[in-house]
UniProtKB/TrEMBL annotation:
Keyword Repressor: no
Cofactor section: Mn(2+)
Cofactor binding, note field: The Mn(2+) ion enhances activity.
Keyword Membrane part of the UniProt annotation: no
Pfam families xref list: M20_dimer (PF07687), Peptidase_M20 (PF01546)
PANTHER family membership: METALLOPEPTIDASE, PUTATIVE (AFU_ORTHOLOGUE AFUA_6G09600)-RELATED, PEPTIDASE M20 FAMILY MEMBER
Matching SUPFAM superfamilies: Bacterial exopeptidase dimerisation domain (SSF55031), Zn-dependent exopeptidases (SSF53187)
Superkingdom: Bacteria
Protein name: Amidohydrolase
GO BP field: diaminopimelate biosynthetic process
InterPro entries: Amidohydrolase (IPR017439), Bact_exopeptidase_dim_dom (IPR036264), Peptidase_M20 (IPR002933), Peptidase_M20_dimer (IPR011650)
């Protein structure tokens, strides 16, 4: 062993531990729990860490944090993050490890993230006499549900004592072949806010428009007008999406209703612009409704912020991945307008969120996340546990 370089040493350990981590993943997959209800999952993670000789502490009620201290632990701390929660989906996969909790399913791969971090922890714990610094393991609850477990973990101090100089997370990516990983430096994922508008008019007989204030017509104008926020106010350099997916007017062919409800999502990748855009949306909606004789109530609920991959940390992590997996297995990612609560960490410390390929077309493993048939090619686990351990050690040495 002593003649081997770190990458080869880790690859060897990853190979040894992969079968066990496949079982860990299957156990978590078969026993999914919804956001902020991950009591059994957290207990299982705590026990598994204890089996590896790693003490952990509960945080955010159903989350955990643990430290692996190398030599000279004060030198530097790097955090690695996984999420624990599953989704309210009925699993359609016919596999031994299918969900035993009817109506709840690990359809976003958080079972994979948790098992992978446990595997990486096992490797790092075994190597702790060979590196300097501290690895902070972050197992957070509630990624899928607002306000996001990450925001609670941060409030409870997960980024202090010791404060990590960087945080690294990974997410399964069924668009990418197992064996590969993907990176995107800078802006990566969007903030996502929910918009609720009630357009108020005055209902009545549809044959007597002069007696009514028609909230349906106002809503039609409003939906068109609001796209100006995207086409005229947003900088072309900042991706911005405004979509309305729900429109409810409970009138009839001959009845103008009193009000119309409109619901949508606003997504972007700049926090200043995000706040400005909220104000512009409100102002435009209020003044347009008023100019047409009606009024509106508008409520914009803040979701997760946008996810910024620190260019330096991401550059180094990518290099480490190229070293570990070979350049041909590391790909560039596009922007992704989905949201992810890892973004909260990225607003506080240098962060890197990369994608783990889990696709295997030959075996029919192609379903997207959040679908009842989502699954992974489990060969990705050997890669993910070793890679995560390796990038963490490279970062401690950076
Ligand atoms: Zn998800
Ligand atoms: Zn997810």
């Amino acid at each position: 062993m002593e003649h081997m370089n770190t990458a080869d040493k880790i690859k060897q350990l990853a190979k040894v531990y992969a079968p066990e981590i496949v079982q860990v993943r299957r156990h978590i997959h078969a026993n999914p729990e919804l956001s902020f209800e991950e009591y059994n999952t957290a207990a299982y993670v705590k026990q598994t860490l204890a089996n590896y000789g790693i003490a952990s502490e509960t945080m955010a009620e159903t989350g955990l944090v643990a430290l692996i201290k190398g030599k000279n632990p004060e030198k530097k701390t790097i955090a690695l993050r996984a999420d624990l929660d599953a989704l309210p989906i009925v699993e359609a996969n016919e596999v031994d490890y299918r969900s035993k909790n009817q109506g709840v399913m690990h359809a976003c791969g958080h079972d994979v993230h948790t098992a992978s971090l446990l595997g990486a922890a096992r490797i790092l714990q075994e190597l702790r006499d060979t590196f300097e610094g501290t690895i902070k393991l972050v197992f957070q609850p509630g990624e899928e549900k607002f306000p996001g477990g990450a925001s609670i973990m941060i409030k409870e101090g997960v980024l202090q004592n010791p404060a990590p100089e960087g945080i690294i997370g990974q997410h399964v990516f069924p668009l990418l072949q197992a064996g590969k990983v993907g990176f995107k430096s800078g802006m990566y994922m969007a903030s996502a806010d929910e918009i609720y508008i009630t357009v108020k008019g005055k209902g009545g007989h549809a044959a007597l428009p002069e007696m009514n204030i028609d909230p349906v017509l106002i809503s039609a104008h409003l939906i068109v007008a609001l796209q100006q926020i995207v086409s005229r106010y947003a900088s072309p350099k900042v991706p911005t999406v405004l979509s309305f997916g729900k429109l409810e007017a409970k009138g009839a062919t001959n009845v103008i209703p009193n009000e119309v409800k409109i619901e949508g999502t606003f997504r972007t990748m700049n926090e200043t612009w995000r706040r400005e855009a909220h104000q512009k949306i409100k102002k435009l909606a209020e003044s347009l409704c008023e100019s047409m004789g009606g009024s509106c109530d508008i409520d914009i609920k803040n979701g997760y912020p946008f996810l910024q991959n620190d260019p330096e940390l991401t550059g180094r992590t990518r290099q480490a991945a190229e070293l570990y997996l070979g350049e041909e297995n590391v790909v560039d990612l596009d922007l992704w307008m989905g949201a992810e609560d890892f973004a909260y960490y990225s607003q506080e410390v240098p962060a890197c969120f990369y994608r783990l390929g889990t696709r295997n077309e030959a075996r029919g493993i192609t379903s997207g996340v959040h679908t009842p048939t989502f699954d992974i090619d489990e060969s990705a686990l050997e890669i993910s546990i070793g890679l995560m351990a390796f990038v963490a050690l490279q970062e401690l040495n950076a």
